[in-house]
Amino acid sequence: MPSRHADPSESTRLVLGLQPVREAVKRHGAALLEVLIEDKPSPKLDALNRFATDQNVARVRRVSRSELDRLSHGVHHQGVAARAPALELLSLDALIADPALVAIALDSIQDPHNFGAVIRCAVALGGAAVIFGEHSAAPLTPATFRASAGAIEHARLCRVRSLGDALSTLHDNAVRVVGLDAQAPKPLSSTDLSGPCVLVLGSEGEGLGRGIKRHCTELATLGAPRTIDSLNASVAAGIALYEAVNQRLKTKS
Predict the structure, then answer these.
(1) How far apart are CA 253 and CA 249, in angstroms?
(2) What are 236-248's pLDDT values in tens digits?
(3) Whose CA is closest to 128, among 149, 98, 107?
(4) Per-residue pLDDT for 9 more than 80?
(5) Among 96, 107, 177, 226, which one has the highest count of C-beta atoms within 10 angstroms of its own C-beta?
């Protein structure tokens, strides 16, 4: 079994939004502490109420909109919230032990909406792992959970103390570490991604940091010069992960 541990920074977390809460109910069921639903006539809210009850959530409450507004601190809640268990994080050793590893590593992605959208892409494209530094990425907040549209409940997340050190450790354990760089001499499509690999994505505009580049085994571009710089982070992540997944499908066929 993969080594997982709960996020030590929290014992519970707040999930906001219809789809994120629905995914939390689907993933955790009776392990949810409670689901809060705005007390107003709404087929969508009523359906979520029934779903949470059917999934044995112990506490499902109808509450006022003002209570949800107070809890959400400005994050759009769509009339629903849930108190969920802490996220389970994978250890770096668990990723190294995965012979079919595909992961996206994030260098300085500070916007929670971009972070959440990358997580959504990773889950959609073969359940790729997401590696991020504890001090160099957006925090795991309700805004991040909402931006992932609930995908974070199914994500393989690995938070590391130092992203550079983690990349070096992966490389030392026969994992290909490919930095996505608009000025790289070769396209990602010409890079062999059929084995264990990590694709490293830098922040929008700035790209990969110099220190992180030194920890990559090679650099590759998604296409024409400046392509990566001009793409939203989640779009770049989606293109890169699709290339890795597509190569593996071709290898199997």
Answers:
(1) 6
(2) 999 999 999 999 8
(3) 98
(4) no
(5) 107
For helices 18-28 and 43-54, the axis angle rounded to 10 degrees is 10
203 pairs with which residues across the strands? 207
Picking from 163, 250, 180, the residue whose alpha carbon sits closest to that of residue 215 is: 163
As annotated, the residues of the chain forming the CATH 3.40.1280.10 domain(s) are: 89-252
For domain 11-85, give the CATH number. Answer: 3.30.1330.30
- Residue count (the chain): 253
Give the pLDDT band of residue 128 (cuts 50, 70, 90): very high
Q: Which fold has domain 89-252?
A: Alpha/beta knot (3.40.1280)
Give the residue among 132, 156, 111, 144 at the shortest CA–CA distance from 20: 144
101 contacts 196 by C-beta, under 8 angstroms = yes
CA distance 59 to 197: 42
Report which of residues 224 and 176 the model is more confident about. 176
pLDDT of amino acid 11? 76
Do residues 95 and 170 lie in contact, with contact meaning Cβ atoms separated by under 8 Å?
Answer: yes
Q: What is the pLDDT of residues 57-97, one digit of tens each?
A: 999 999 999 999 999 998 999 999 999 999 999 999 999 99
**Under a CB-based contact definition with an 8 Å cutoff, are residues 123 and 237 in contact?**
no
Q: Which of 253, 161, 177 is nearest to 215 (CA)?
A: 177
- Given its phi and psi angles, is residue 29 left (phi above 0), alpha (psi -120 to 50 degrees) or beta? left
Q: In whole angstroms, what is the distance from residue 48 CA to residue 53 CA?
A: 8
- Structure token pair of residue 206: 């700035």
When the pLDDT of each residue in the chain is averaged and rounded to a whole number, the result is 90
Both tokens assigned to 39:
């007390």
